[in-house]
Amino acid sequence: MTTLRLRIGRQALNSLTAHVTKGFETYYKREVGGHLLGYRSKDGFHVSRAIPYNTPYSCRTGWGINQYNFRKKGLRLETKRLKWIGTYHSHVEINRTASTGQSRKDKEAHLFFEGPVDIIFRIATYRMRAPKVCLSYRNMQDSHVYYCDICAYVKDPQGKIRIMTVECGCRKTDCICLRSLISK
Questions:
Q1: One-character DSSP codes across 19-36
Q2: Is the pLDDT of residue 180 over 80?
Q3: Domains, the chain
Q4: DSSP 47
């Protein structure tokens, strides 16, 4: 079985990076998340927009959403061209560790929502190993350097969850990919 691809457009990548970085820079580093809008392509999915979903209940290990209201808003965001294809949330570095995988709670939430795609966005202040299918890049902001890894998961109609290959849908110069640096 071939691995599906998730392409993330420039606007979506910028929005994801800004939102996750803001959560990381708050006091006690907070997980954040939101909606993914895009469409299905012949070899996977394309994310055109990432819409932050702010909640007062986020913490270091969760972003505390009301699943019913989150789902309702996701469906309201749809347009004729862009559909609510899934969700994203961050995993922040705590004691020099952070996962790119789905936790048990992440899997339960992924199965609950209609959207087939779930993105885990790991952010850290140093480079960590990531699966080769994830998109890895460095983000420099206000003299700080953040290392970002975006891993995506897709569920099939039977509820089986698989990892996807993540690609930057923008020009290579816009995404400072670290894959070649990690392998050296």
A1: HHHHHHHSTT----EEEE
A2: no
A3: 5-183 (3.40.140.10)
A4: E
CA dihedral 40, 43, 49, 55 (to 10 degrees): 80
Rounded distance, CA 83 to CA 41, Å? 12
Average pLDDT over residues 143-150: 90
- pLDDT at residue 95 in the model: 74
Average of pLDDT values for 162-167?
94
Which residues have a Cβ under 8 Å from the Cβ of 57 and sit 6 or more positions away?
63, 64, 65
SS3 174: helix
Least confident range of 61-65, 66-70, 126-130: 61-65
For residue 98, the 8-state DSSP code is -
* Count of beta carbons in the 10 Å neighbourhood of residue 81: 9
Q: Residue 146 contacts by C-beta under 8 Å, 6 or more apart in sequence?
A: 21, 24, 123, 124, 125, 138, 139, 140
Average pLDDT, the chain: 85
Selection from 177, 183, 144, 166 nearest residue 9 by Cα: 166
What local confidence, expressed as pLDDT, does residue 172 receive? Answer: 53
Burial of 89 (0-12, 13-18, 19+ CB in 10 A): buried
CA–CA distance, 146 with 57 (Å, rounded to integer): 24
